[in-house]
Protein backbone atom coordinates (compact mmCIF):
# COMPACT_ATOMS: atom_id res chain seq x y z
CA UNK A 1 0.00 0.00 0.00
CA UNK A 2 1.28 3.48 -0.92
CA UNK A 3 2.70 5.78 1.75
CA UNK A 4 1.71 8.88 -0.20
CA UNK A 5 -1.02 10.55 1.92
CA UNK A 6 -2.72 11.88 -1.20
CA UNK A 7 -2.90 8.48 -2.77
CA UNK A 8 -6.49 7.24 -2.54
CA UNK A 9 -5.17 3.71 -2.06
CA UNK A 10 -4.45 4.55 1.59
CA UNK A 11 -8.15 5.21 2.13
CA UNK A 12 -9.94 2.06 3.21
CA UNK A 13 -13.48 1.08 4.04
CA UNK A 14 -14.23 -1.26 6.91
CA UNK A 15 -17.37 -2.94 8.19
CA UNK A 16 -18.68 -2.55 11.73
CA UNK A 17 -21.76 -3.85 13.50
CA UNK A 18 -23.04 -2.79 16.89
CA UNK A 19 -24.00 -6.13 18.37
CA UNK A 20 -27.41 -6.71 20.03
CA UNK A 21 -25.90 -6.11 23.50
CA UNK A 22 -24.84 -2.58 22.48
CA UNK A 23 -28.24 -1.80 20.97
CA UNK A 24 -30.07 -3.18 24.01
CA UNK A 25 -27.83 -1.29 26.45
CA UNK A 26 -28.37 2.01 24.61
CA UNK A 27 -24.67 2.73 24.10
CA UNK A 28 -24.55 2.85 20.30
CA UNK A 29 -24.46 6.66 20.12
CA UNK A 30 -21.63 6.94 22.62
CA UNK A 31 -19.51 4.42 20.76
CA UNK A 32 -20.26 5.79 17.32
CA UNK A 33 -19.17 9.17 18.67
CA UNK A 34 -15.74 7.74 19.48
CA UNK A 35 -15.34 6.47 15.94
CA UNK A 36 -16.52 9.72 14.35
CA UNK A 37 -14.28 11.72 16.66
CA UNK A 38 -11.26 9.80 15.39
CA UNK A 39 -12.12 11.22 11.96
CA UNK A 40 -13.64 8.09 10.50
CA UNK A 41 -16.36 8.87 8.00
CA UNK A 42 -19.70 7.07 8.16
CA UNK A 43 -20.28 5.78 4.63
CA UNK A 44 -23.27 3.61 5.53
CA UNK A 45 -25.41 2.84 8.56
CA UNK A 46 -28.56 0.78 9.07
CA UNK A 47 -30.45 -1.26 11.64
CA UNK A 48 -31.04 -4.85 10.67
CA UNK A 49 -32.31 -7.96 12.42
CA UNK A 50 -29.96 -10.38 10.72
CA UNK A 51 -31.11 -13.81 9.54
CA UNK A 52 -29.26 -16.99 10.54
CA UNK A 53 -28.24 -17.33 6.89
CA UNK A 54 -26.58 -13.90 6.84
CA UNK A 55 -24.85 -14.50 10.17
CA UNK A 56 -23.61 -17.95 9.19
CA UNK A 57 -22.01 -16.43 6.09
CA UNK A 58 -20.66 -13.45 8.03
CA UNK A 59 -18.98 -15.76 10.55
CA UNK A 60 -18.20 -18.58 8.08
CA UNK A 61 -14.55 -18.68 9.24
CA UNK A 62 -15.82 -19.93 12.62
CA UNK A 63 -18.10 -22.68 11.25
CA UNK A 64 -17.47 -25.92 13.14
CA UNK A 65 -16.15 -24.25 16.29
CA UNK A 66 -17.85 -24.96 19.63
CA UNK A 67 -19.13 -21.40 20.02
CA UNK A 68 -20.47 -21.01 16.47
CA UNK A 69 -24.16 -21.66 17.18
CA UNK A 70 -24.07 -19.55 20.36
CA UNK A 71 -22.58 -16.74 18.31
CA UNK A 72 -25.25 -16.95 15.62
CA UNK A 73 -27.98 -17.08 18.28
CA UNK A 74 -26.55 -14.05 20.08
CA UNK A 75 -26.14 -11.96 16.94
CA UNK A 76 -29.63 -12.89 15.76
CA UNK A 77 -31.19 -12.31 19.18
CA UNK A 78 -32.07 -8.70 18.37
CA UNK A 79 -31.37 -6.00 15.84
CA UNK A 80 -27.83 -4.85 15.15
CA UNK A 81 -26.67 -1.56 13.66
CA UNK A 82 -24.38 -2.25 10.75
CA UNK A 83 -22.12 0.34 9.20
CA UNK A 84 -19.28 1.13 6.86
CA UNK A 85 -16.53 3.46 8.05
CA UNK A 86 -14.00 5.10 5.76
CA UNK A 87 -10.58 6.55 6.49
CA UNK A 88 -6.84 6.19 6.22
CA UNK A 89 -6.03 2.57 7.11
CA UNK A 90 -9.57 2.35 8.47
CA UNK A 91 -9.46 -1.43 8.96
CA UNK A 92 -6.59 -1.44 11.44
CA UNK A 93 -7.53 1.91 13.00
CA UNK A 94 -11.01 0.63 13.85
CA UNK A 95 -9.65 -2.67 15.21
CA UNK A 96 -7.29 -0.67 17.41
CA UNK A 97 -10.15 1.44 18.78
CA UNK A 98 -12.31 -1.67 19.26
CA UNK A 99 -9.67 -3.65 21.18
CA UNK A 100 -9.12 -7.34 21.73
CA UNK A 101 -11.81 -9.97 21.23
CA UNK A 102 -11.98 -11.01 24.87
CA UNK A 103 -13.28 -8.06 26.92
CA UNK A 104 -11.44 -9.30 29.99
CA UNK A 105 -8.16 -8.77 28.07
CA UNK A 106 -9.16 -5.66 26.08
CA UNK A 107 -7.17 -2.59 27.14
CA UNK A 108 -8.78 0.34 28.95
CA UNK A 109 -9.56 3.07 26.44
CA UNK A 110 -10.69 0.59 23.82
CA UNK A 111 -14.40 0.15 23.14
CA UNK A 112 -14.47 -3.46 24.31
CA UNK A 113 -12.26 -2.67 27.31
CA UNK A 114 -14.39 0.27 28.40
CA UNK A 115 -17.85 -1.20 27.81
CA UNK A 116 -17.49 -4.88 28.63
CA UNK A 117 -15.44 -7.20 30.82
CA UNK A 118 -16.47 -10.86 30.48
CA UNK A 119 -13.98 -13.62 29.78
CA UNK A 120 -14.11 -16.33 27.13
CA UNK A 121 -13.98 -18.89 29.93
CA UNK A 122 -17.06 -17.40 31.58
CA UNK A 123 -19.01 -17.22 28.30
CA UNK A 124 -18.11 -20.80 27.39
CA UNK A 125 -19.07 -22.07 30.82
CA UNK A 126 -22.44 -20.36 30.44
CA UNK A 127 -22.83 -21.71 26.91
CA UNK A 128 -23.02 -18.20 25.49
CA UNK A 129 -21.16 -16.10 22.95
CA UNK A 130 -18.78 -13.51 24.28
CA UNK A 131 -20.80 -10.29 24.34
CA UNK A 132 -18.26 -7.72 23.27
CA UNK A 133 -20.40 -4.84 22.01
CA UNK A 134 -19.10 -4.35 18.48
CA UNK A 135 -17.83 -6.24 15.46
CA UNK A 136 -15.12 -4.83 13.19
CA UNK A 137 -13.52 -6.44 10.14
CA UNK A 138 -10.20 -8.11 10.92
CA UNK A 139 -8.43 -7.32 7.67
CA UNK A 140 -9.00 -5.73 4.26
CA UNK A 141 -10.17 -8.94 2.63
CA UNK A 142 -12.70 -9.56 5.41
CA UNK A 143 -13.85 -5.93 5.12
CA UNK A 144 -14.57 -6.32 1.40
CA UNK A 145 -16.46 -9.56 1.97
CA UNK A 146 -18.52 -8.14 4.84
CA UNK A 147 -19.40 -4.84 3.17
CA UNK A 148 -20.54 -6.78 0.13
CA UNK A 149 -22.56 -9.18 2.28
CA UNK A 150 -24.38 -6.60 4.41
CA UNK A 151 -24.83 -3.66 2.02
CA UNK A 152 -26.08 -3.00 -1.48
CA UNK A 153 -23.98 -0.58 -3.46
CA UNK A 154 -26.65 2.14 -3.34
CA UNK A 155 -26.64 2.05 0.47
CA UNK A 156 -23.01 3.23 0.63
CA UNK A 157 -22.41 6.96 0.26
CA UNK A 158 -19.55 9.20 -0.83
CA UNK A 159 -19.42 12.77 0.49
CA UNK A 160 -16.96 15.31 1.88
CA UNK A 161 -16.65 15.84 5.61
CA UNK A 162 -15.82 19.45 6.47
CA UNK A 163 -12.78 18.24 8.41
CA UNK A 164 -11.48 16.02 5.60
CA UNK A 165 -8.60 18.44 4.96
CA UNK A 166 -7.33 17.92 8.50
CA UNK A 167 -7.65 14.18 8.81
CA UNK A 168 -6.26 12.99 5.50
P1 LIG B 1 -13.31 -10.67 16.64
O1 LIG B 1 -14.76 -10.29 16.79
O2 LIG B 1 -12.43 -9.90 17.57
O3 LIG B 1 -12.82 -10.62 15.21
P2 LIG B 1 -13.38 -13.58 16.39
O4 LIG B 1 -12.32 -14.52 16.87
O5 LIG B 1 -13.51 -13.38 14.92
O6 LIG B 1 -13.18 -12.20 17.15
O7 LIG B 1 -14.76 -14.13 16.98
C1 LIG B 1 -15.98 -13.60 16.55
C2 LIG B 1 -16.87 -13.37 17.75
O8 LIG B 1 -17.21 -14.63 18.32
C3 LIG B 1 -16.22 -12.60 18.92
O9 LIG B 1 -16.27 -11.21 18.74
C4 LIG B 1 -17.05 -13.07 20.09
O10 LIG B 1 -18.30 -12.39 20.16
C5 LIG B 1 -17.32 -14.52 19.73
N1 LIG B 1 -16.34 -15.48 20.28
C6 LIG B 1 -15.06 -15.67 19.89
N2 LIG B 1 -14.47 -16.67 20.59
C7 LIG B 1 -15.42 -17.15 21.44
C8 LIG B 1 -15.43 -18.21 22.41
O11 LIG B 1 -14.44 -18.93 22.66
N3 LIG B 1 -16.60 -18.39 23.09
C9 LIG B 1 -17.71 -17.65 22.86
N4 LIG B 1 -17.74 -16.66 21.95
C10 LIG B 1 -16.62 -16.41 21.24
MG1 LIG C 1 -13.12 -11.83 13.60
TrEMBL record:
One of its GO terms (molecular function) is metal ion binding. Residues 11-158 form the Nucleoside diphosphate kinase-like domain. Its main location: cytoplasm. It comes from candidate division MSBL1 archaeon SCGC-AAA259D14. Keywords: ATP-binding, Cytoplasm, Kinase, Magnesium, Metal-binding, Nucleotide metabolism, Nucleotide-binding, Phosphoprotein, Transferase. Belongs to the NDK family. The active site is at 135 (pros-phosphohistidine intermediate). Pfam families: NDK. Its cofactor is Mg(2+). It is an enzyme of class 2 (transferase). Major role in the synthesis of nucleoside triphosphates other than ATP. The ATP gamma phosphate is transferred to the NDP beta phosphate via a ping-pong mechanism, using a phosphorylated active-site intermediate. The keyword Mitochondrion does not apply. It catalyses: a ribonucleoside 5'-diphosphate + ATP = a ribonucleoside 5'-triphosphate + ADP; a 2'-deoxyribonucleoside 5'-diphosphate + ATP = a 2'-deoxyribonucleoside 5'-triphosphate + ADP. ATP binds at residues 19, 67, 95, 101, 112, 132. This is Nucleoside diphosphate kinase.
Amino acid sequence: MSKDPDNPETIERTFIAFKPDAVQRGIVGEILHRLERAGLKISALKMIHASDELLEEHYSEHKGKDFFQNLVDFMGGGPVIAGVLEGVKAVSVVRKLVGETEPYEAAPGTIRGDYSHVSVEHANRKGKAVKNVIHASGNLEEARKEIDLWFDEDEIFTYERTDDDHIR
